Amino acid sequence: MTTPSSKPTPRRGIADTLAQVAGGAVEQRLLKEIRAGPVPRHLAIIMDGNRRYAESHGLEREQGHLRGKDKLEELLDWCLEVGLRTLTVYALSTENFHRERAEVEELMRLFEENFRRIGDDPRVHQHQIRVRALGNRALLPPPVVRAIEYAEMRTQGYDQYRYNIALAYGGREDILQAIRTIATEVKEGKLKPEEIDDRVVSSRLYTQDLPDPDLIFRTSGEERISNFLLWQSAYAELYFCDVLWPGLRKLDFLRAIHAYQLRRRRYGT
Ligand code: IPE
Ligand code: IPE
Ligand code: MG
């Protein structure tokens, strides 16, 4: 917070300024190239590394999660800038509930605040972004569920962009709940076993009508899927970057999209 007594910010050295200008130029060039090519129809992000970021910056764990939430707000601008239509971010896995109680409570407070904020975000209304939470809501406390419902209700009529937040989400749980739904439909005679195909399964997953992700991007240097979109990622391109989520720069994001554009997708052919 700036107060009259706070110290003036030290003047940036010329080397810093030059580096910033050069970084900006690289960003602009990448952005131009990206806009000339196909962007992923659906980008999915595993936002990992909040606690390591906090530790390496001498911050409390909660501050790491808070900065991670701030980064997600920035990300929305970047996605709009490159013309991405569908974004899914992994905010909390079913396994993350096994973390210590105080951390889970911190996260729940952040989610509640964040869904309310998203529901009121002018960008969401200006660009007609439909917001949805993917995951098992029975695992979430009622104030978080109400905040989710608020954001979903305020954006339910929109169809220009899709913004999905996976929380209390697990790829296996997603598949299990789809199996249960299908089994019930078969039992009730609404579906025949021989009618169960890719399309039937996909439409019973939390992602329902969304296209499969074209690119899954994970920060923090870990190269694993950690139970994210297991069925949906069958032919997704994977991109891993060493930066911890709260420290992600626009340039890192643009590099991921650019790397995707250079990939040759074969789908087994
Ligand atoms: C990602 O950061 C956020 C959640 C999983 C909730 P982490 O909390 O996993 O932070 P690291 O990976 O331990 O640094
Ligand atoms: C994956 O990160 C889940 C989210 C980013 C929400 P984790 O930190 O939970 O995954 P692992 O434990 O490193 O596999
Ligand atoms: Mg992690």
List keywords for this structure.
269 residues, alpha/beta, Undecaprenyl pyrophosphate synthetase, 6-stranded parallel beta sheet, binds 3-methylbut-3-enyl trihydrogen diphosphate, binds magnesium ion
3D structure, described in words:
The chain has 269 residues and is of the alpha/beta class. The chain has a domain at 39-170 and 214-262: Decaprenyl diphosphate synthase-like (Undecaprenyl pyrophosphate synthetase), CATH 3.40.1180.10. It has nine helices and six strands. It has a six-stranded parallel sheet with strand order 3-4-2-1-5-6. The longest helix is centred in the first third of the chain and has 23 residues, at 14-36. Residues 1-7 have low confidence and may be disordered. Residues 47-52, 92, 96, 107, 220 line the site of one 3-methylbut-3-enyl trihydrogen diphosphate. One 3-methylbut-3-enyl trihydrogen diphosphate (IPE) binds at residues 47-52, 92, 96, 107, 220.
